[in-house]
């Protein structure tokens, strides 16, 4: 899968900028933006959580991006498939089925404490449609891949952003265009889940 | 030439639009606090604003260099790049692409620039299917209406009206149920995204060093527009360019907070060069590089960049917070501003990017209260830019109406002006009672509704000065009093109080008789030539009196004398120095008195008998930055016990001639102010500005006659034994 950066941990992150200490801010702001957060100890538990969420949102068809290189995503797909879900991982199949899928699954590179945003590397087409077309979207995030604020987020991104498609997602798709009443899911997902993997203080730096 | 509009009629319609009024008043009430809450986790808002301003200022001063780098970055990544001088060039270029690339269906997201050049009409005329995808924009396009706000385009509509547009467009009955309408829009617009050949977006920023464009949306439509169609067109104005990737953070820490009171919008998307698209070609799924066309639009922007007085408009990030706090916009909404961009910033953009005739028709809806300058992320000096454009327009076209021209001649000649004022005091006799003009002749009826206008005093202050001068102490401190028209001819009693308070400080008070109006009324209309004539007369009048300090008890005069006079003569070989010497002596009354009281150990906290609140004049608070001193003086005064009101610094609606010309807008502002005064339970409202005093007395006279309006000079004078 094409990415802006193939290995964010070694090429973009540095311990001073990216670490788990911004967790309280991140959690508070992400929840305030209507993101739903679940913390799990490891990738196996993450896969189980993804399945639970799929059941909760009544998704029988799931599209995923990044299975070739991302163990967490790959494991979750296996678990979903074993539970009888229809899972698409190939980019052409993802493109074809994303409009009908009930759930999309992909990776978030890091979170931003100040805003509760997650940075998504969506250079590939499939990474974008899994996050936009289904009514629910799950990202997997490393517990210690957090930056303090938007300024530091851009310091991190500027190290690797040479070409492609990169950005933040902060909660589900929303609008307030009718009477300024908050409504979710107008174009993108109405539910946005962050499955956070790992324990506090664990190192993410190789 | 812009179409001649009947602005007063348009305003009247908006003021009677209950849906609009309800939406705007609720929004205006909630916005300031919601904005501040979003900043609660930021150390210094000022620091962020300074960073953004500095970055944008650097960019505009290097705009060609930054644009060249942006172009090189796009091309190096395989994107097409085109610099369009104006809308026509954009249209020609895009129609050509549509033809070559066999484009039939187009989806759009987030592009004010395309509205600015009326792009959609051209596509429709060429038989192309084009759809806006932002929910609000889509509804408005369906309803054939224009956005009334840059961030909340459909704020003027309610759910019933929206349902009507849905039903009409979809030819099915859509109930006024918001979740249902949202899901309907999702279904309908999803088809548009999936079947579109071309996506057109604007950009919140364009990064020179890597060619990326950034888009912030909450709905996510920009992500779909930049993902699903096989062609992506970016229409970006020069003012959106920034040098470095990291500079984007300087915009993004402020734009969502100011725009929608969010710490971040749901989606912040950066697209850098062509990206993959997977679509069906001849029944087979294939992956290709998306065609990317970046159009850098000038349409007046480069001239603005090279205009030293106007280039701070590049500091605007289109958050629209200036509208959200504007006392006029929050009453009338965006449509009366005409063209595409509304509010104060809209007037400027209209003047720079559209035409000056259109600008001149609504530019006086900015009353110069400067509330916008306290929130603007990029610190754009909006009222000053409007002032500059106004003066340019007047220089070229002269003042618009014959009566304005007459006003201009009268004001330039003190003797004629003062003679007329004296005549006025006699002529109004049949209609004045108890110091108020209650029943003006019929054609003035609209102006006195809901408020009384003050009468011109029988004896102006200038005729009373000689008597007061006899009480001058022998002093080394010589203070000259600049009264201004209101304190000379309408409220001479307050001038007497000013003199009394100054004499009590130990000052010898001088009053140069050749002084006249400060010139603000003509300067406000943009007539700087007449303004200069008046300024020279005043400067001459005070030069010869040998005063150390020049005191004004009217903040508008004080601001004009100290700030504008300096500006007026910048670069003038003789007058720049004389204006500087004059301006540097000017002090606003309350700040001067508070300083002296403090030196003399007279400032204290007395709990006086009258519960008194204080109304901040716009020019005093935001023009001169004086707001603590009047409160300190009120705490000291024996007769007052101070109580703060809600929004004490929101404009009372007078704003010079505005309050008379647009009385229908001025009155709701006054009514809101009076409600806030009443809610404090105070029996006195103190002011430090005679124009506010005129407005508040007029309103309270009709709406709450039990509450007194007093200038702080009058309150202080009461404590002085004569």
Tell me what the structure shows.
- The complex is a heterodimer of chains A (206) and B (722).
- Chain A contains 7 helices and 12 strands.
- Chain A has 206 residues and is of the alpha/beta class.
- In chain A, the strands form 3 sheets. A 6-stranded parallel β-sheet of chain A has the order 1-12-7-4-2-3, with helices on both faces. A 4-stranded mixed β-sheet of chain A has the order 8-5-6-9.
- With 722 residues, chain B is of the alpha/beta class.
- In chain B, the strands form 6 sheets. A 6-stranded parallel β-sheet of chain B has the order 1-12-7-4-2-3, sandwiched between helices.
- In chain B, strand 22 (684-687), helix 35 (690-703) and strand 23 form a beta-alpha-beta unit.
- Chain B: Keywords: 4Fe-4S, Electron transport, Iron, Iron-sulfur, Metal-binding, Repeat, Transport.
- Chain B: Residues 357-385 form the 4Fe-4S ferredoxin-type domain.
- Chain B: One of its GO terms (molecular function) is 4 iron, 4 sulfur cluster binding.
- Chain B: This is LUD domain-containing protein.
Key features of this structure:
heterodimer, A: 206 residues, alpha/beta, Rossmann fold, six-stranded parallel sheet, 7 helices, 12 strands, globular, B: 722 residues, four-stranded mixed sheet
Set out the fold topology:
The complex is a heterodimer of chains A (206) and B (722).
Chain A: H1 8-11, H2 23-32, E1 36-40, H3 43-56, E2 61-64, H4 71-82, E3 86-88, H5 91-97, E4 103-107, E5 110-112, E6 117-121, H6 125-132, E7 136-142, E8 146-147, H7 150-158, E9 164-169, E10 174-175, E11 183-184, E12 191-197
Chain B: H1 7-15, H2 18-38, H3 45-61, H4 63-76, E1 80-84, H5 87-100, E2 105-109, H6 112-116, H7 119-125, E3 129-132, H8 135-143, H9 159-170, H10 178-195, E4 198-201, E5 205-207, E6 212-217, H11 221-225, E7 231-237, E8 241-242, H12 247-252, H13 255-260, E9 267-272, E10 276-281, E11 284-289, E12 291-297, H14 301-305, H15 321-324, H16 329-332, H17 343-354, H18 356-362, H19 382-397, H20 402-412, H21 414-427, E13 432-433, E14 436-437, H22 445-448, E15 453-454, H23 465-469, E16 478-482, H24 484-490, H25 492-504, E17 508-510, H26 520-524, H27 528-543, E18 549-552, H28 555-568, H29 575-583, E19 586-588, H30 589-599, E20 610-614, H31 618-623, H32 628-636, E21 640-642, H33 658-661, H34 663-679, E22 684-687, H35 690-703, E23 708-711, H36 712-718
Parallel strand pairs in B: 1-12, 2-3, 2-4, 4-7, 5-8, 7-12, 16-17, 16-18, 18-19, 20-21, 20-22, 22-23
Antiparallel strand pairs in B: 5-6, 6-9, 10-11, 13-14, 14-15
Helix pairs in contact in B: 8-9, 17-18, 17-19, 20-27, 24-25, 25-36, 27-29, 28-29, 30-32, 34-35
């Amino acid at each position: 899968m094409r990415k802006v950066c193939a290995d964010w941990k070694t090429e973009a992150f540095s311990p001073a900028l990216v670490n788990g200490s911004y967790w309280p801010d991140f959690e508070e702001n992400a929840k305030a933006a209507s993101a739903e957060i679940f913390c799990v100890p490891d990738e196996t538990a993450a896969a189980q959580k993804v399945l639970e969420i799929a059941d909760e949102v009544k998704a029988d068809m799931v599209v995923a991006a990044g299975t070739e290189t991302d163990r967490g995503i790959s494991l979750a797909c296996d678990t979903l498939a074993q539970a009888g879900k229809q899972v698409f991982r190939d980019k052409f199949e993802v493109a074809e089925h994303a409009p009908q899928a009930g759930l999309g699954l992909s990776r978030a590179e890091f979170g931003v404490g100040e805003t509760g945003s997650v940075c998504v590397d969506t250079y590939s087409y499939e990474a974008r449609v899994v996050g936009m077309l289904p009514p629910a979207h799950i990202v997997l995030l490393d517990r210690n891949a957090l930056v303090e604020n938007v300024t530091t987020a851009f310091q991190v991104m500027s190290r690797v952003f040479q070409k492609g498609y990169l950005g933040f997602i902060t909660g589900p798709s929303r609008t307030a265009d009718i009477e300024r009443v908050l409504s979710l899911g107008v174009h993108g997902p109405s539910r946005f889940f962050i499955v956070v993997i790992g324990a506090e203080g664990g190192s993410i730096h190789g | 030439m812009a179409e001649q509009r009947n602005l007063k009629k348009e305003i009247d319609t908006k003021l009677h639009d209950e849906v609009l009024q309800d939406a705007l008043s609720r929004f205006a009430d909630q916005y300031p606090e919601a904005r501040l809450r979003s900043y609660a986790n930021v150390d210094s808002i000022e620091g962020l604003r300074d960073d953004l301003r500095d970055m944008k200022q650097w960019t505009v001063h290097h705009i060609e260099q930054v644009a060249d780098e942006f172009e090189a970055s796009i091309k190096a990544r395989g994107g097409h790049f085109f610099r369009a001088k104006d809308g026509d060039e954009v249209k020609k270029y895009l129609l050509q692409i549509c033809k070559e690339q066999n484009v039939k269906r187009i989806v759009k997201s987030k592009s004010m620039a395309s509205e600015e050049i009326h792009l959609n009409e051209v596509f429709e005329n060429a038989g192309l299917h084009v759809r806006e995808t932002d929910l609000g924009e889509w509804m408005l396009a369906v309803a054939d209406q224009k956005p009334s706000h840059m961030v909340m385009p459909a704020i003027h509509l309610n759910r019933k009206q929206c349902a009507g547009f849905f039903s009409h467009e979809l030819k099915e009955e859509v109930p006024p149920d918001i979740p249902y309408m949202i899901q309907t829009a999702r279904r309908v617009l999803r088809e548009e995204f999936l079947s579109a050949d071309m996506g057109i977006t604007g950009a919140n920023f364009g990064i020179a060093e890597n060619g990326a464009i950034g888009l912030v949306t909450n709905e996510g439509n920009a992500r779909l527009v930049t993902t699903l169609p096989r062609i992506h067109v970016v229409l970006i104005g020069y003012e959106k360019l920034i040098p470095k990737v990291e500079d984007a953070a300087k915009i993004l820490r402020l734009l969502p907070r100011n725009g929608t009171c969010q710490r971040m919008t749901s989606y912040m998307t950066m697209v850098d060069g062509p990206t993959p698209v997977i679509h069906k070609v001849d029944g087979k799924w294939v992956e290709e590089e998306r065609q990317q066309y970046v159009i850098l639009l000038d349409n007046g922007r480069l001239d603005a960049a090279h205009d030293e007085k106007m280039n701070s408009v590049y500091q605007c990030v289109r958050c629209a917070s200036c509208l959200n706090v504007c006392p006029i916009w929050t009453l009338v909404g965006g449509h009366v501003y005409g063209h595409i961009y509304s509010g104060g910033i809209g007037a400027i953009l209209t003047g720079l990017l559209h035409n000056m005739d259109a600008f001149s028709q609504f530019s006086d809806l900015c009353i110069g209260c400067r509330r916008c300058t306290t929130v603007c992320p990029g610190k754009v000096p909006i009222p000053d830019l409007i002032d500059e454009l106004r003066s340019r327009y007047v220089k070229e076209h002269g003042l618009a109406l014959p009566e304005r021209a007459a006003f201009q001649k009268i004001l330039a000649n003190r003797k004629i002006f003062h003679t007329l004022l004296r005549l006025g005091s006699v002529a109004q006799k049949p209609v004045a009672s108890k110091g108020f003009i209650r029943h003006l002749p019929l054609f003035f009826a609209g102006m006195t509704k809901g408020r009384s206008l003050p009468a011109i005093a029988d004896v102006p202050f200038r005729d009373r000065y000689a008597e007061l001068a006899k009480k001058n102490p022998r002093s080394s401190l010589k203070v000259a009093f600049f009264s201004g028209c209101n304190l000379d001819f309408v409220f001479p009693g307050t001038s007497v109080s000013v003199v009394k308070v100054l004499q009590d400080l130990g000052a010898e008070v001088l009053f140069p008789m050749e002084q006249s109006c400060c010139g603000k009324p003509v300067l406000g209309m943009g007539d700087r030539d007449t303004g200069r004539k008046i300024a020279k007369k005043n400067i001459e009048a005070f030069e010869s009196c040998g005063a150390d300090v020049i005191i004004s008890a009217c903040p508008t005069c004080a601001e004009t004398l100290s700030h504008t006079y300096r500006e007026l003569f910048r670069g003038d070989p003789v007058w720049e120095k004389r204006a500087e010497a004059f301006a540097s002596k000017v002090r606003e009354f309350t700040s001067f008195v508070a300083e002296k009281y403090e030196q003399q150990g007279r400032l204290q906290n007395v709990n006086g008998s009258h519960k008194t609140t204080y109304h901040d004049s716009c020019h005093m608070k935001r023009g001169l930055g004086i707001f603590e001193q009047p409160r300190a003086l009120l705490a000291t005064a024996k007769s007052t016990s101070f109580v703060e009101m809600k929004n004490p610094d929101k404009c009372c609606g007078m704003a010079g001639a505005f309050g008379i010309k647009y009385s229908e807008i001025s009155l709701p502002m006054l009514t809101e102010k009076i409600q806030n005064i009443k809610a404090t339970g105070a029996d006195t409202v103190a002011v430090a500005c005679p124009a506010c005093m005129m407005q508040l007395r007029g309103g309270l006279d009709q709406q709450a006659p039990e509450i007194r309006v007093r200038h702080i000079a009058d309150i202080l004078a009461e404590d002085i034994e004569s």
